[in-house]
Structure formats: structure tokens, C-alpha cells
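Worked Example 4.2. Consider the chain below.
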Amino acid sequence: MAENLILPNTHNRKELYQALLPQVEALLMPEDDLIANLANIAAALKQTFGFFWVGFYLKKEQNLVLGPFQGPIACTRIAFHRGVCGHCYTSQQTVLVPDVEAFPGHIACSSDSKSEIVVPVFNRQGEVCMVLDVDSDKLNDFSEDDVLGLEALMRCLEQKL
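Applying the procedure from the previous section yields the following C-alpha cells:
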């Protein structure tokens, strides 16, 4: 596959995820390097949706540590019990936050972040090994379409772990 995305001319996120998923699968299939794959996923999501920030936090010892991302500089380490990423890690479930100011313990890496969705990524042992963190500079910017689309992308990634 060429390193270009072919996307429909629409703002319908469900249709965009449907177009993006097979292209991300094609990018991941021949590549075994985790960092390269995470970088391409972050770039593909940023390019497709224009999200404010897209990136991964990887489990390292007792923290989530910043991995490949697209957007402004970010928090480097997040304790498992802190913020939306920590809540996703400990609950092992996707967390959708319409207004980050209303989320108890939200970590404000950027005051421009208004809403957020975080999706867990599981290794072959069924443990959360990283999370995908997506921030928007708009309130209430994520919906069930994002939950389903991002979870499908992470299940694709999990096949490479």
C-alpha cells in the first residue's frame, strides 16, 4: 500500500472509519515494528479527522509513558490512577469524556483540550499494555461512532502485538 490515505469526501465519521480501517490494516500487515505502527496510526487519525491531539501511552513499570503522537507536546508520564488515561487503564474500558473540565482528576496537558476519548489496547495475555488517547479542542466532539471506530482500529493493532 502506498503511504497515502484515500478518504471519502464526507464529514460522516462512521463512513470515514469504514474507509480508514482497511487502509490501516494494510499499513500494519507487513510491518512488525511497534513504534512505526503506532506512529502511522496516530498520523492516519490526525490526517483523517483533524483531531487536536492523537497519541499512545505505553505501560512501563507503574506508569503510562508517552509514545508516538501527533499534536502539541504532551504529558510524559501518567500514573495508573490519574486522569482519563489512568481511568481507561484501570477500568480496561473505553472512556469518552464530553467535557474534560467535568472529569474528576483530569490532567490538563493543554488548556485547549475540551473533550477526550481513550481506548485500551490489550496484549495477547489480555492485559492493557497501552492506551490510545484522542483529544479534541471542541466540547462533546466524540460519539458512539468514535468509540466503535477507534476500538476497531485498536483490535486491528492488537493482532500485531
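The domain at 13-158 is CATH 3.30.450.40 (Beta-Lactamase). The CA atoms of residues 39 and 68 lie 5 Å apart. Compare this with Example 4.1 before moving on.
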